[in-house]
Amino acid sequence: MSRLFGSVRARATLAATLVVAVALVAAGAAVLLSLRSNLLGEAGTQAERSARDVATELAVGTPYADLSLDVDDRPVQVVDEEGTLVAASDDLERITGTGVETVEPRPAASPDGAGDTDDGDDDAGEPLEAGEIGERTTVSDGSATIDGDTEDYRFAAVPVKTEDRGRLTVYAGAPLSAEHGAVNTALTVMLIGFPVLLAVVGWVTWLVTRRALRPVEGIRREMAAITASEDLARRVPVPGTHDEVARLASTTNETLAALQTSVERQRRFVADASHELRSPIASLRTQLEVAAAHPELLDLDGAVEDTVRLQHLAADLLLLARLDAGERPADARVDLAALAREEAGGRAGVSVREDAGAAGGVTVAGSRGQLGRVLANLLDNAQRHARSAVEVSVRGDGDLAVVGVADDGEGVPEADRERIFERFVRLDAARSRDDGGAGLGLAIARDVAVRHGGTLTVHDAPAGGALFELRLPAA
């Protein structure tokens, strides 16, 4: 049971059925109340019409014996001011709800006008003149037995003032059997129809959700197969419905593509790192083995150079690993102009130019060590390719701080201006590793720039070489 209702399909079906059930109950209750109210109002109108017909006869002086009290077999009572029943339907056997439960009329004590008054005022109720019928009608519910049949009635009480018999009240009833029958029929239809309608709603919802969730099951199966096979080149099927499920499938495929790219990049990185580490380690081992056998042949400078190169490569790999792990840079204030002068100091042929807008210092927020590493890598790259001079410029550009490193070398071909920022990429394949490095400097520089919310791009320098521009948000 828990597994059944743990599915989206079952929960959606149950929720839709419950919502429709609540709506049907509310609508059914409203319909029943409205129907009952309308039928009770109709019964009250019929009762009032019958009471006013009798009151009209009394107003014109019709004797009690000649009143039309047995029309349509409805219960009628005529009561005087004393509360005495003076006229009633012939077959009336019992009555409740009118306030006068007697069914046998009594002769009036003063039939010749004992109740007559001249001023037209009554002791209670609506003031009436002789021969006038009251406008106010009082409605009540009760029951009556006529000729052995007992039914529920709605009674209407209408006052009337006569010339010779004083103030009288006419009670006339209209049967409520039609109201009870209609309400009971409607209730029976609802009790039978609502469960059938709910079953149809549940069945349709079950089919619709199965059809809607069928692509989701296909996505799940394919994802399970991808997980089992570890084949990130596979993709989940995308339905042609252009709905949320289709967008989910598209997003899943985009995630798989990004994951595949990341895994391939990681594998390539591990392979390239292993290759780059193998060379200095092998060279250092060879020198140490030669020195162990022939101490006089020890190339100490070469061993130190290989060790330093190995140290730098290990530091680069460690920094890339931290950047890939999402390490957030520090939030310190860094003066780029001062940092540029510091990194350029002691480098032959490197000059620093600060624009007038940067005379007071261009400040950014970030890690001073990582930003210094960016400038150092850019300067190393520029010096490696420059013919004679390298220029560092620092300036402000609106909300950005811009650092440019330009050389007068051969420049970077436009087709390679993005590829040079990939890891272990060196454009000159014939260049020696000792002169060219491992191809990680520019990759590290761009990763650090992106981590600081900035960009690193390459353009043509005014002197004809390459111009690397680092743009960072100003603090």
Walkthrough of the structure:
The chain starts with 7 loop residues before the first helix and ends with a strand. The strands form three sheets. Strands 2-1-6-5-4-3 form a six-stranded antiparallel beta sheet. It has a five-stranded mixed beta sheet with strand order 8-10-11-13-12. It has a two-stranded antiparallel sheet with strand order 7-9. With 475 residues, the chain is of the alpha+beta class. It folds into three domains: 1-229, no CATH class; 244-324, Helix Hairpins, CATH 1.10.287.130; 332-473, Histidine kinase-like ATPase, C-terminal domain (Heat Shock Protein 90), CATH 3.30.565.10. α1 runs antiparallel to α2 (177-229) and α6 (368-385) packs antiparallel against α8 (441-451). It is rod-shaped. It is 47% helix and 19% strand. β4 (138-146) and β5 (149-162) form a beta hairpin.
* Secondary structure category: alpha+beta
The ordered H/E elements are HEEEEEEHHHEHEEHEEHHEE
Uncertain residue segments: 110-123, 429-434
Largest sheet: 6 strands, antiparallel
Strand ordering within the main sheet? 2-1-6-5-4-3
Distance between the termini: 60 Å
SS elements, strand count = 13
Q: What topology does this entry show?
A:
Layout: H1 8-59, E1 76-80, E2 85-88, E3 92-96, E4 138-146, E5 149-162, E6 166-175, H2 177-229, H3 244-293, H4 300-324, E7 332-335, H5 336-344, E8 350-354, E9 363-366, H6 368-385, E10 390-397, E11 400-407, H7 433-436, H8 441-451, E12 455-460, E13 466-473
Parallel strand pairs: 8-10
Antiparallel strand pairs: 1-2, 1-6, 3-4, 4-5, 5-6, 7-9, 10-11, 11-13, 12-13
